[in-house]
Amino acid sequence: MNTEAVSAHLARRAAVIGWPLGHSISPAFQQAAFDAVGLPVTYRAVPVAPDGLEAFVASLKHPTDNGPEWLGVNVTIPHKQAVANLVDDVTEEAQQIGAVNTVICTNGRLIGHNTDAIGFLRAMLDRDIDPVGMSAIVLGAGGAARAVAVGLLRHGVTELAIANRSPERAESLCWTLQDKFPRVAVKPLPLDAGVLRTRLAKATLLVNTTSVGMRGGPDPDGSPVPVDALSERHIVYDLVYNPQITPLLAGALAVRASVVEGLPMLVHQGAASFAQWTAVNPPLDVMFAAARRAIGLVS
Question: Looking at the predicted structure, is the pLDDT value of residue 215 above 80?
């Protein structure tokens, strides 16, 4: 146990911050994990508006509300990139991704880390799927796409395409990634059905980081690619975790493609944050059970 971070006699607090935060299930599975290992930590969702972010991050060092000291926070949309400029230091992985999803409060300093790539890869490896040597397509060019792309490039894909509705964002991300990983071809693609169909004929792995197919989102019944372009040789990974089987994954399953749902990545990235804060092995079974209850997969 990280006795500097958590003492059996001294309560701490942790949180997920973002704006807005009505969708987050992180409090459900993180609090379950702290309770399961007997750590006196309270984890909750704290909505932080963009204009209040700087003050909130500063308060992580010096709480002004007479509450317990902070153990750390998870960071979600839209603060991942902004927080990177407000902490004292960032890890190498967070630098490569260009975003922070975990802040660690230690010895009066704030360290920015990113566990999204770790969570993404662990969910794949749990299914005995190793991206080494694969040609991959990532849909989207936001913070999640950056983490996925870095995870894939660090783990040995041979070719990577980034497809996004805004070609300029895809191009910008590709330039950044190509500079950091010069040995792998990183190419932008338009989010066009015909182009994606042609590219899917050559690629093995497809990763959706967009909100298409998300329950309550702008296109809950849609798929970001034509599902009839998929075949049994494809691996389809959808970061959307609610519903568990999105229209994209349903199409993939119909042609017997391999699929990876979004919930395992969410839990694994949270578990990696938990380990960073506490130096305690996270209770994954407890975290997965709590996450599934939170989205109604089990009673």
Answer: yes
Is 80 catalytic? The answer is yes
Candidates 258, 94, 97; CA nearest to 177 is 97
User: How far is 111 from 5, CA to CA, in rounded Å?
Assistant: 13
Q: How far apart are CA 24 and CA 40, in angstroms?
A: 22
Rounded to an integer, the average pLDDT of 7-27 is: 86
- Measured CA to CA in angstroms, residue 51 lies from 46, 140, 217 at distances of 14, 26, 25
Token digits for 14? 């942790």
Q: What is the 3-state secondary structure (H, E, C) of the chain?
A: CCCCCCECCECEEEEEEECCCCCCCHHHHHHHHHHHHCCCEEEEEEECCHHHHHHHHHHCCCCCCCCCEEEEEEECCCCHHHHHCCCCEECHHHHHHCCCCEEEEECCEEEEECCHHHHHHHHHHHCCCCCCCCEEEEECCCHHHHHHHHHHHHCCCCEEEEEECCHHHHHHHHHHHHHHCCCCEEEEEECCHHHHHHHHCCCCEEEECCCCCCCCCCCCCCCCCCHHHCCCCCEEEECCCCCCCCHHHHHHHHCCCEEECCHHHHHHHHHHHHHHHHCCCCCHHHHHHHHHHHCCCCC
| pLDDT > 50? residue 299 | no
Catalytic pick from 80, 180, 187, 202?
80
Q: Kindly report the average pLDDT of the chain as a whole number.
A: 94
Q: What is the pLDDT of residues 27-67, one digit of tens each?
A: 999 999 999 999 999 999 999 999 999 999 999 998 878 88
Q: pLDDT tens digits for 78-124?
A: 999 999 999 999 999 999 999 999 999 999 999 999 999 999 999 99
